[in-house]
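User: I'm writing a tutorial on reading structure tokens. Could you give me a worked example: one chain, its sequence, then its tokens, then a sentence or two explaining what the tokens reveal?
Assistant: Sure. Here is the example chain.
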Amino acid sequence: MDKELSGQEKETIRKYSDIIDAQRPVSLKHPAMDRMKRAAQFSPFAALTGYEDTVESARDRFVKDLEYFGEHMENIED
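And here are its predicted structure tokens:
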């Protein structure tokens, strides 16, 4: 099931046809970074300091509320 390209897609291919199949440039001055170092650049960082603690605290409160209401359900009218 081949999808026909839209006019915009055709225009984009025409516009970039000179570089679409081009080889990636390789620097002689800067050697390629190994995968582990490259991955470390994009790994998560502690932008949300304390987020995990806040989520854990909210979860603990939720569980306590569930336990409380579970024990007192018979006192709650329908």
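What the tokens reveal: Helices lie at 7-15, 17-20, 35-42, 51-71. The mean pLDDT is 85.
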